[in-house]
Write a structure and sequence with these properties.
- It is a single chain.
- The chain contains 15 helices and two strands.
- The chain is mostly helical and 413 residues long.
- The chain has one domain: Orthogonal Bundle (P1 Nuclease).
- The chain has a two-stranded antiparallel ribbon.
- β1 and β2 form a beta hairpin.
């Protein structure tokens, strides 16, 4: 997801969509039998970048930034409730952060409840998109694929939510192996438009979420050590690091709940299209924000009523499976992918036009995605804190420092 200060042309390598030439043996193999009945309506004029602009055929003529960029009037969220305010910058990411913060129970660390901390987390919900605004190819190569996951390519490789490799580079190796042995099943790479070397990738969104979760958990682990034997400045710095990690994690969870971030059909349907879904290359932009600009913003207070208090998702403990959090994340991402066809069906039925009662019916589905994002994010934050052990290595070093300092102090005479 992006905010209004993100350059959409830097998102995923602007240019021709390599999936447009997917044939029957490729994308069709990753579709349900009823969907892959016949190949047609392949798209050849879209971009590889998530949310890159195309012909504006849904109503508003000017391109807006990508994922849900201008959905909502953001609200300042305290644990006691939600109060809407006017702000037109990365609105949905801010709102997801604020809703998730309102779900945290009272036994969550108190420093997170400070207004400055909550504002910082909400601001950081847009941070990974701001990294996209510079042309550095190494940063684009590193950052871009973390925002999406082409679930169909994982299915082509034979993976399910239970078998997807826990380590991102294991997945890369297996994806490349499948591409080498079955090249006809994968979209070709257009090297002329692949300067950042991402076209051959399937995205890393599940790993980005899991790895960032690990950083939040690590932050709580070493905060506990500093609270035992650190200085006030060290405790404060550790708290600020946690705030940063929580905000960045929020961004990727938000991306996962935009269904078009979980599919090769991210900007109009590609490949076999027996049901005649839209191939319009401005569809992504319309879902990002233009639809809500037309029909009106959801009520944050009403969304809050659909949330429960955060709870622990899973705790591997010392002897539990090491991939337990990754499996929770993958299940979540695959569940959002299941919303891709329902989204396209809503568009086909005229329920996403924003015109009249029928054109407003799609609003409920998109609101539901915001609720899912906030709930899962709150659960991840809470799980990171609840399952973080004390950083015993750091604690030992701090204890040694304290002992050395005490030894250096002259005994009173």
């Amino acid at each position: 997801m992006v905010g209004m200060y993100h350059n959409p042309q830097s998102a995923r390598g602007a240019g021709e969509n390599p999936f447009a030439s997917f044939g029957q043996m490729g994308l069709a193999a990753a579709m349900p039998p009823e969907t892959r009945a016949r190949p047609e309506l392949a798209r050849a004029d879209s971009t590889r970048a998530r949310g890159c602009s195309g012909p504006a055929q849904f109503g508003l003529s000017r391109a807006l930034p990508m994922i849900f960029a201008r959905w909502l009037v953001c609200s300042a969220v305290a644990l006691a409730g939600l109060a809407p305010v006017k702000a037109w910058d990365y609105e949905t990411h801010r709102l997801i952060c604020q809703l998730a913060l309102s779900c945290l129970p009272t036994n969550f660390p108190a420093f997170i409840r400070a207004p400055a901390a909550q504002e910082r987390i909400a601001f950081l919900g847009g941070e990974p998109d701001r990294w996209r605004n510079v042309p550095d190819l190494t940063l684009r190569h590193f950052n871009g694929p973390d925002h999406y996951f082409d679930t169909e390519l994982a299915i082509l490789c034979g993976f399910s939510p239970d078998t997807l490799p826990m380590f991102r580079y294991d997945f890369v190796v297996q994806l490349e192996r499948a591409r080498a042995t079955q090249p006809d099943k994968f979209p070709p790479v257009n090297e002329a438009k692949n300067a950042d070397r991402t076209q051959q990738l399937a995205g890393f969104l599940p790993w980005a979420i899991t790895e960032q979760f690990g950083k939040v958990k690590s932050g709580f682990a070493y905060l506990k050590a500093y609270e035992e034997a650190g200085t006030a400045e060290e405790v404060s710095n550790a708290q600020q690091n946690i705030i940063y990690a929580m905000g960045v994690l929020a961004h990727y969870v938000g991306d996962a709940t935009q269904p078009l971030h979980t599919t090769v059909h991210y900007n109009g349907w590609v490949g076999p299209n027996p049901r005649g879904y839209t191939t319009n290359t401005s569809f992504h932009r319309w879902i990002d924000g233009e639809y809500f600009l037309k029909v009106g913003m959801p009520d944050p207070a009403l969304l809050r009523t659909r949330l429960r208090p955060a709870r622990v998702l899973a705790d591997p403990g010392r002897n539990g499976p090491p991939d337990v959090i990754f499996r929770e994340v993958v299940k979540f991402v695959f569940a959002q992918h299941e919303q891709v066809e329902p989204l396209y069906r809503l568009e086909k039925a005229g329920k996403l036009t924003g015109e009249g009662a029928l054109g407003r019916e799609g609003k409920a589905m998109l609101e539901g995605q915001l609720v899912r994002a906030a709930q899962f994010l709150a659960d991840l934050w809470y799980t990171a804190h609840a399952t973080a052990p004390v950083d015993t290595y750091l604690r030992t070093q701090l204890q040694r420092r304290a002992a050395a300092g005490a030894a250096a102090v002259p005994a009173p005479k």
